[in-house]
Write a structure and sequence with these properties.
Layout (H helix, E strand, L loop, with lengths): L1 E9 L12 E8 L5 E10 L8 E6 L1 H7 L8 E6 L5
Parallel strand pairs: 3-5
Antiparallel strand pairs: 1-2, 1-4, 2-3, 4-5
């Protein structure tokens, strides 16, 4: 799991049928000091996150399982919204 910040939305008029109805968001990795780092990734939102929120996301096979049990083609999925960090 990683902590990231939602920095935008992705609109795809054509996508895999198993992703129809899924919200796609741009997420960038957040360092512990709050700075954004690395390249943004596209993640499927499974929790109702919005632009500007800090989120928990997973990648790889765990992301596909988090979004759909039928094996949708997903590399990253948002699985939580961060309320606070200590």
């Amino acid at each position: 799991m990683q902590i990231g910040k939602v920095i935008g939305r992705v609109v795809a008029t054509r996508k895999d049928d198993r992703l129809v109805g899924s919200k796609l968001l741009l997420v960038q990795l957040v360092e512990m000091d709050g700075t954004l780092t690395g390249q943004p990734i596209v993640a499927v939102d499974s929790v109702g996150a919005g632009v500007g929120e800090r989120v928990i996301y997973v990648t790889g096979s765990m992301a596909a399982r988090a979004v759909s049990p039928d094996g949708a083609p997903v590399d990253a999925a948002i699985v939580g919204i961060v309320d606070s960090l200590e």
